[in-house]
Design brief:
The structure holds three protein chains of three kinds.
Chain A: H1 6-41, H2 46-60, H3 64-77, H4 84-110, H5 113-121, H6 126-156, H7 168-179, H8 182-214
Helix pairs in contact in A: 1-2, 1-4, 1-7, 2-4, 3-4, 4-6, 5-6, 6-8, 7-8
Chain B: E1 4-15, E2 18-29, E3 33-38, H1 44-51, E4 59-64, E5 67-68, H2 76-82, E6 83-86, H3 98-108, H4 114-127, H5 143-155, E7 161-165, H6 173-188, E8 192-196, H7 200-206, E9 209-214, E10 217-222, H8 225-228, H9 233-241
Parallel strand pairs in B: 3-8, 3-9, 6-7, 7-8
Antiparallel strand pairs in B: 1-2, 1-4, 4-5, 9-10
Helix pairs in contact in B: 3-4, 3-5, 4-5, 5-6
Chain C: H1 6-9, H2 12-44, H3 49-63, H4 67-80, H5 87-112, H6 116-124, H7 129-159, H8 171-182, H9 185-214, H10 216-221
Classes of the chains: A mainly alpha, B alpha/beta, C mainly alpha.
Bound molecules: adenosine-5'-diphosphate (ADP) and magnesium ion (MG).
Chain lengths: ~220, ~240, ~220
């Protein structure tokens, strides 16, 4: 048994880097899915809206851990072989998309209906109204909760440790297996998460205040 | 009559159980200014909204500049290039400047070049007297100025018919005047216009025809003379209560 | 590739035991987390600067770190200083610590939304500070944030699956066990997903029903919670 040293710290920092990478990938993947879900959620066709709502209810009603295990263990059992990084990214993206989809649909719907009508009366297509009139306005509304949700994404990447992907939490567990100083190590791990999440939380709140003031 | 540009014939429209238009019939000639007056809830807005296809109607005919509104396959965007509408709540795009608001549709819907668009925007902005506000955002403008920008935004589509739905109702008396002056100047320029309004004096001054709507039908119509000599007790009462 | 749920259903006894433990974890942590969270919310609104800073610091620290790490800190932290507790206790402690921070944030918003004039009116009726808090401030505050509270509690129930990582034998762990016995991961986790989905719909339904009973004013006004 060795005591905690710089090599361990380096190992943990490498894990932290993977947490950042995973968070970025999950936000991008989930962002693409979320955008599709948000657009589907404001579709004129009831069927498409229902599909989006069903997806969101299903995914939000299941723990992320189950989704990750389904992709990591379940897909190979069905004959789809999938790398740990791909499994982690895919599982996280599926989860993140449901939440971003709901946030973004909400901010699209928050733009007054009269704005749609004004665009329509100027002979713009639905797509043009969406792109040039609705989206620019809803981005202001969507940004604070989106940044706030990225904090959840960063924290949720910790669950990927359970499918033996070596990110921050898993690297802490590995170091702990050789040093057995759990309190020290998990406190360091927690501090690193805090260092990533706290600035984002703050930023989200600052944005929220700023937009709340300019909306008056 | 070949110079009829907007024609409604026995138009019926209901929202669910509520029958709102119950056989509306009237014509608007090219270059004519028509005022629609009537109590709140009498169906004035609904009639306007049917004219530019914002609302579907159940039966009857509406023809606008050669477009048949009863036709399901009608190209609504083509219609709306011809018919401008301005609402009581200006509905400007808050994230765009005055110029941005005005240039958006000519650029996107009419695919004009940037220089053509800019020329057009400056022209209509001059017509509503707001050239100096071109780079302002809507929230930096007074209600009257915002409404003038909304009018300019519609004019930039170079429509053949303009619809106005109580465009001064949300404004303070001082601000009403500046908007009414703009509309009056437009009327003088030969633009075909249908205005829903509560400004009786204004209606009397500018309109070639006045339509009094009551309970979903055209109850009385004629020249602005009918405001002075109403022919029906309902109009007598309405004019009396709107002095 | 053949799909066969038989082996999984054959072990449904484990699933039922796990489900019951998940319910116990969640219901207990809802109550403890709500009480602790409300106290922390009150603390963070306190005029005593130190108390309010400590409470706000707590909320920030918990909200910006993962539950899994909190669980590991509590689990290994306690045992590394020689304290041995049953897993049930460790889980409830960690989930309470976590849930309290989120609940505190929600309840704070609720309490902040109570108009000063309401409190002054209550004080002028000679109510005691406790009466003012429990009768005039708390009920409308809860009513106002009830929807956020219910969402938080559902999320917390789902995140209790994380406790499988410190060998608590709740629903998720039962699934992992069945998976290792049957080598049918796809079928096992599909069944788990369905069970959790039912649980979360059930929770939502219960919170809705409770809201209907607890806030009759909303029901009468026809405004949804
Ligand atoms: N979208 C709608 N859905 C249901 N009822 C409507 C709708 N729009 C208007 N109405 C009803 O139609 C009637 C006429 O409305 P409107 O055309 O706005 O009248 P006006 O403009 O003359 O005040 C009113 O009773 C109104 O409540
Ligand atoms: Mg109206």
């Amino acid at each position: 048994m060795t005591s905690f040293n710089l090599m361990h710290l380096q190992f943990i920092l490498t894990g932290a880097m993977w947490t950042v990478i995973l968070s970025v990938l999950a936000t991008l993947g989930g962002g693409i899915g979320g955008a599709i879900l948000a657009l589907a959620g404001i579709s004129r066709h009831r069927f498409i809206r229902n599909i989006a709502a069903l997806y969101i209810t299903l995914i939000q009603g299941v723990p992320l851990l189950v989704i990750l295990f389904l992709t990591y263990f379940g897909l190979p059992a069905l004959g789809f072989n999938i790398e740990p990084l791909a499994a982690a990214t895919f599982g996280l993206s599926v989860y993140v998309s449901a939440f971003l989809g709901e946030i973004w649909r909400g901010s699209l719907e928050a733009v007054r209906k009269a704005q749609w009508e004004a665009g329509e009366c100027l002979a713009l297509t639905r797509m043009q109204v969406l792109l040039h009139i609705i989206m620019p306005q809803s981005i202001r509304l969507a940004t604070p909760p989106t940044v706030g949700f990225i904090v959840q994404v960063v924290k949720n990447t910790s669950l990927v440790s359970a499918i033996s992907f070596i990110e921050l939490t898993r690297s802490g567990q590995i170091v702990n297996n050789s040093t057995f100083q759990p309190f020290l190590i998990y406190t360091i791990v927690a501090c690193l998460y805090f260092a990533m999440c706290f600035p984002l939380s703050r930023f989200s709140r600052v944005l929220e205040k700023k937009f709340a003031i300019s909306a008056r | 009559m070949s110079d009829v540009i907007v024609g409604l014939k026995d138009v019926w429209k209901s929202f669910g159980e509520v029958s709102v238009l119950r056989g509306v019939t009237f014509d608007v000639a090219k270059g004519q200014v028509v005022s629609i007056i009537g109590k709140s809830g009498s169906g004035k807005s609904t009639a306007l909204r049917c004219i530019n296809g914002l609302e579907a109607f159940q039966s009857g005919e509406i023809a606008v500049d050669g477009f048949n509104l009863a036709d399901e396959t009608l190209d609504l965007r083509a219609l709306r290039k011809k018919v401008g509408i301005v609402f009581q709540s200006y509905n400007l795009f808050p994230h765009l400047t005055v110029l941005g608001n005005i240039e958006l549709a000519p650029k996107l819907a009419k695919r004009l070049s940037p220089t053509e668009t800019r020329e057009l925007a400056l022209k209509v902005l001059g017509e509503v007297g707001l050239l100096d506000k071109r780079d302002h955002y809507p929230e930096q403008l007074s209600g009257g100025q915002q409404q003038r920008v909304a009018i300019a935004r519609s004019l930039a589509m170079e429509p053949t018919v303009m619809l106005f739905d109580e465009v001064t109702s949300a404004l303070d008396p001082e601000l009403k005047e500046e908007v009414l002056r703009v509309i009056e100047r437009l009327a003088g320029s030969g633009m075909t216009m249908i205005l829903v309004t509560h400004e009786m004096n204004f209606a009397r001054r500018v309109s070639g025809k006045v339509i009094f709507m009551h309970q979903g039908v055209v109850h009385e119509q004629g020249t602005s003379e009918i405001l002075s000599n109403p022919g029906t007790p309902e109009l007598v009462q309405f004019v009396g209560s709107n002095l | 590739m053949n799909i066969d749920f038989g082996p999984v259903f054959a072990r449904s006894g484990f699933l039922i035991d796990g489900l019951l433990l998940t319910l116990q974890f969640s219901l207990t942590a809802i109550v403890t987390g709500f009480v602790a969270g409300t106290l922390i919310a009150v603390g963070s609104r306190s005029k005593t600067r130190l108390l309010s800073l400590v409470c706000q610091g707590y909320v920030e620290a918990i909200r910006n770190t993962p539950l899994l790490v909190q669980l590991l800190v509590v689990y290994f932290g306690l045992s590394s200083v020689g304290l041995k507790f049953p897993v049930f206790f460790v889980v409830i402690l960690a989930m309470t610590i976590n849930n309290a921070a989120y609940t505190a944030e929600i309840m704070r918003a609720g309490l902040d939304s109570i108009a000063k004039s309401q409190i002054e009116a209550a004080k002028s009726l000679a109510l005691s500070p406790w009466q003012v808090f429990s009768r005039v401030m708390l009920p409308p505050a809860i009513e106002r944030v009830y929807r956020s509270l219910s969402s938080q509690f559902v999320l917390m129930m789902l995140s209790s699956s994380i406790t499988s990582q410190i060998s608590a034998e709740e629903l998720m762990a039962a699934g992992n066990f069945i998976q290792s016995e049957t080598f049918r991961p796809f079928e096992t986790y599909i069944v788990l997903a369905v069970l959790y989905l039912i649980l979360s719909l059930l929770f939502r339904g219960l919170f809705w029903a409770f809201g209907q009973v607890a806030f009759p004013r909303r029901r009468r006004l026809g405004t949804s919670l």
